[in-house]
Amino acid sequence: MFHMKETPAEAPLREALRLLEGTGLAVALGGSGLLGALGLAESARDWDLTTEADADRVAAALGGLPLERNGPDGIHTDHRIRIAGGVVEILCGFSIRAPRGVVRVPTIVSARVEGVPLGSPEAWAAAYALLGREEKFERLMSWLAVRGADPLVVSRLRAEPLPETLSARLASLPRLLAAPSGPA
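Given the sequence above, the corresponding structure tokens read:
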């Protein structure tokens, strides 16, 4: 998928998407899968999906698939559901504890590639900054600096209790002038 050199099996990702979207849930691929789709990574160790639906609704939508549930821990204040032995991790209500409060990272579909809904690069840049993953944060910020950022997504993120430096970096991105044509 996405022309990456190394990825986990795609079948569990596609099955999760089929089941979740089939019940009307909005979901989006983030993490290394998103980076790979944007040409910013050559491998992914798992598929990270986000949704704003709660964990009970997600579990019900997965229709009896074997799953593992994890609640808030450490910096994560969300709930996570893992399927296929962790090949797919679904972050339900993706949120991260930050110095100024809990930051809710929205699930926004920015494009579809090979039938897979891609998450917002702006939202994942903010998430990576909050998670202390500086290299991935900078890759996404560089990508956004060239292509432009969706001003509505940036505004939504800046309404969260972000650290001032992160809020300022997001605000400094050039605005996306046209509708995105895809991840390239």
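The beta strands are 27-30, 47-51, 67-70, 79-83, 88-92, 95-98, 101-104, 111-113, 116-118. Try to locate this feature in the token string yourself.
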